[in-house]
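User: What would this chain look like folded?
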Amino acid sequence: MKKSIFSVLMCAAALALLGACSQKEADQKDNKAAKAPTASTKVLPNYRYVDIDTILDKYNLSKDYNEEMMRMQDQIESEAKRHESNIKSFANTMQHKMESNQYNEQNYTADQTKMQQMQANAQSSLEKMQTNSAKAAMDAQKVIQDSLNNFIEDYNAKHHYDAILYKAATMYIDPALDITDEVVEGLNARYNKVKK
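Assistant: Here's the prediction, encoded as structure tokens.
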């Protein structure tokens, strides 16, 4: 009899233990089902992306630098036209002197030397302007990139994303992960505040 009571108690304990395990597994399944995204709820990964082309088009600092680069390009073109006009005018004067036999060998050599000097000055002036323009463009690019990096660092300190990517670095990325407009808005708010 003792053996049968002991056996019954052991069987009861085993059944109770199996019941508890089954209940725990059922609870875990219920929890997983509750946490799993439904068709209407989509869990986004903890990263976002920005479209750098849109940022460069809409960021006021970038717009200001683009306008500056356009002004520099216009100045280069204007300077090139001025040199071209002066050289062409001097060449026409030389042509007129030749046709009217106003040249002796010494005067012709002097004018040829002057023409070569004008061409060399034009080339040197334009190269210097283009070098300055290229340097200004590189400096502007660095300032814009530094500004974007600093903003993203501050922005992410609040949002805690695992990564913020450039859209161009992906073949496909869910549009719901796009934070470009937020970034542009924040960059412009920061830039306009400093600019005032």
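The radius of gyration is 38 Å. If you want, I can go into more detail on any region.
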